[in-house]
């Protein structure tokens, strides 16, 4: 759970009639796609992402477990960083949960030629160092085609 709402400063936030949410930073970074799957009517995450791209969403980053979903939604990987336990999501347990890379994507509307994240890792080395996440973010932003 996010305790600091300043995370959403400089964002445009949207909510569907079904209670799903999307947040897009002024620079096009999609930082929050939350599909409400309770009740009789459900929003699909892919529809929410498509909506986000029509509202200026051009990029995002995510753990590798979501790779194929984002790939099918037209996001192509640009760079990645290896998992860092210091930035593990709330509730992450080392003995139980995977240590997934964080992949930085840009929206192109096309599917990446890399079907699996492992193929991407073979072609593109991870960004490393103490500030790897910030470096990867910058690399992705400088690489954007749109």
The shape, in one word, is globular
Number of helices: 4
Strand order of the largest sheet: 1-2-3
What is the chain-wise order of helices and strands? EEEHEHEEHH
Question: What class, by secondary structure content?
Answer: alpha+beta
Largest sheet: 3 strands, antiparallel
The number of strands is 6
Report, as a whole number of angstroms, the end-to-end distance.
32 Å
Low-confidence stretches: none
Rg calc: 15 Å
Please state the average pLDDT score. Answer: 90
The percentage of residues in β strands lies in 15-25%
Helical amount: 10-25%
Give a topology summary:
Elements: E1 11-15, E2 21-25, E3 30-34, H1 45-54, E4 59-63, H2 67-72, E5 75-81, E6 102-107, H3 117-123, H4 132-143
Antiparallel strand pairs: 1-2, 2-3, 4-6, 5-6
Structural notes for this entry:
Strand 1 and strand 2 form a beta hairpin. The mean pLDDT is 90. The strands form 2 sheets. A 3-stranded antiparallel β-sheet has the order 1-2-3, covered by helices on one side. The protein has a 3-stranded antiparallel β-sheet with strand order 4-6-5. The chain is built from 4 helices and 6 strands. The chain is globular and about 40 Å long. By secondary structure, the chain is an alpha+beta fold. It has helices spanning 45-54, 67-72, 117-123, 132-143; strands at 11-15, 21-25, 30-34, 59-63, 75-81, 102-107.
């Amino acid at each position: 759970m996010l305790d600091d709402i300043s995370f959403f400063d400089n964002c445009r936030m949207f909510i569907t009639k079904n209670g799903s949410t999307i947040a897009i930073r002024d620079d096009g970074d999609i930082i929050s796609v939350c599909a409400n799957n309770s009740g009789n009517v459900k929003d699909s995450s892919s529809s929410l992402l498509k909506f986000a791209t029509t509202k200026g969403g051009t990029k995002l980053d995510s753990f590798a477990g979501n790779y194929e979903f984002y790939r099918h939604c037209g996001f192509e990987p640009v760079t990645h960083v290896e998992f860092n336990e210091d930035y593990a999501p709330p509730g992450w347990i080392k003995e139980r949960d995977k240590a997934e890379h964080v992949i930085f994507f840009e929206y192109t509307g096309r599917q990446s030629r890399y079907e699996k994240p492992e193929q991407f890792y073979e072609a593109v080395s991870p960004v490393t160092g103490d500030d790897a996440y910030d470096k990867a973010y910058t690399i992705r932003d400088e690489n954007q085609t749109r």
